[in-house]
Please model this.
Amino acid sequence: MIGRVFAEMWQGLRRNSSMVISVVLVTFVSLTFVGAGILMQQQISSMKAFWYDRAQVSVDLCSSVSTAPNCAGGQASDTQRDAVEAALQGAVLTPYVSEYEFEDQDQAYENFQQQFAGDPIVSFVEPEYLSESFLITLTDPDQADIIIEQLSNYDGVEAVTDQRQYLESIFELLNVASLSAIGVAVVMLVAAALLIATTIRLSAISRRREIGIMRLVGASNRYIQAPFILEGVVAALIGAVLALAATVAIAHFFVQGYLGRQLPFVSLIGVPEALLAIPVLLVVSVLLAWVSARIAINKYLKV
Model:
């Protein structure tokens, strides 16, 4: 009996080869978007774990061109700078400060030149235009508000900035891209479900004589439905396997290969993380095909 079911399934796949190929391709594209969305979410989580713990609080001292309320006296004096450093070493802030470093104007200018190398703006900036700053690494990055509250009102302090706020905009952009990929995937999955249902209906119509004979000999509905459902599942699984290959290729060649060369200091995901998408894509493909095919063939048998 099982052999007969599989024989009917292969016969149906051969008869509707063009429609089966369409199902495979649509499933492949939709599940590739699902895989890409999973990869992006993993990358966002990896980057947050990597960068949030390394994000610093920057205490920018007044420069000669600062206009902040605390900079009425012009560039921060040695006394004002020493006061900020004393606060960092004091009993109130010491529990929150893991370490800190001081960046003078010459160092800030050198970093500025490296960051904006080749940009015409470099020729208009002098070292005295840039702020000296304390770069503070916290024991707990979530307690940055304490440092900001304590040091913002010091004379000679232009601004106290939690660098994580710059990361938030990047992560929000990545989240939007990830959700967009998932949104496209949902639309494509709906299209795949409709295409699977149509394929199964056409397959059933082309074999209505065989179905009629099976009914006459007392075959159960489950036995009649099984080959059609398996057709959809097999086509969807082929698409899922192709999507898995594409997901692994994206992780290996694009993320680790291209992005790895362009962003050497960023923690990037790789093939092991891509492999975690295997059960998700396989389960989605099987459920999609089984539900679509079951609904389609049930409607046909009730006609």
